[in-house]
Amino acid sequence: MSETTPTQPAAELAKVEPDTAAPHAVPKAANGNPIGKLISGMSLTQLTLAVLVVVFVWQWVDAHYQLNQVQQEVARRLAEVEGSSKANQTLVTQNQELVRELGGKLSLLESKFAETQSQRAALEALYQEMSSSRDQTTLAEVEQMVLIAGQQLQLSANVKAALIALQHAESRLQQLSRPSFGEMKNRINRDIERLRALPNIDAPGINQQLDKLILAADTMQLAQDARLQAVPSITTQVPQDDDAWKRFWRELWQELRGLVRIENTEQAEMPLLSPTQTFFLRENLKLRLISARLALLSHDEASFQRELSSAQAWINRYFDNKSKDAAQALASLQKLTTANITLNVPDISGSLEAVRSYRATHERGAR
Fold this sequence. Notes:
The chain is mainly α. It has three domains: 7-83; 132-199 and 348-366; 201-226 and 272-342. Helices cover 75% and strands 0% of the residues. It has helices at residues 7-16, 34-41, 44-156, 159-176, 182-196, 203-216, 223-230, 244-259, 275-297, 301-318, 324-337, 349-366. Helix 10 runs antiparallel to helix 11 (324-337). The longest helix has 113 residues, at 44-156. 14% of the residues are buried. The model is unreliable at 1-31 (pLDDT under 50).
């Protein structure tokens, strides 16, 4: 309807004003074409108006077409926007669900993290307690080892046992690798070097010789037994052809010879010992040798020499020093008297005091 409306005024205008257009009428076409007849019948104004109307209609149609295109594009864009909005809404919904899920996981992780932190704090406290307890135990062991080493040196001068105890204490400190234990380790190491620098005494060899002498005390022959065996028995062979008178004088002479004995009175003779006295003599000799062994272990050279001299004197006085066992015993005793068993035992009380001081400080710090 809108397309026919502009043509009606032009037709009516053509009917109303036929005369005005006459002077300017277009000549008819010679060929008799209806359009040509129509154009020839229109005036210039009508023709202009018709052109204007055609141009307007064309513009309107074009604008309407373009408007339809814009509307379609807008509708398409709106549809796309609406679809995108729905997709965005779906994404938003999914994101919200994901955020809620992540929030739950985050809360769980936070609770796990808090639990882990509490467990870590408990483990650190337990580790500190165990470390402190381990340090205290180690210090107690080290103190005990150093104390044993000092006792071995003071009571028996046992350098080997003291050295073993100090080395064990040093290895226990080395296992912990605490920088604060450096001073104690240095003190203990210095004492170990001092003990290693002491002269080596063949205590096992000397002790073995003393054991042999103790065993020989039961088998050595006494001097009184040797004298009794040395007294010859006076026996004379009586001729078979002697008469009674000759036998009488011969027996009388033997009796007179038995009544007289010539001896050196300047040599003191020991009285005969009973079996009980002999037993105690041998046991006392063993006690002398055992005392010499104790003096060896304690490195008491004065007592060692005194006991060896007493054993030598007893063997020379009561035993047959010409017998093989006694001669070997005297030779062994003479060799032992030349042995040097003296040791200048170092004082390791400084290491003990250092360990006790550090242990007391560590216990106060732990409290």
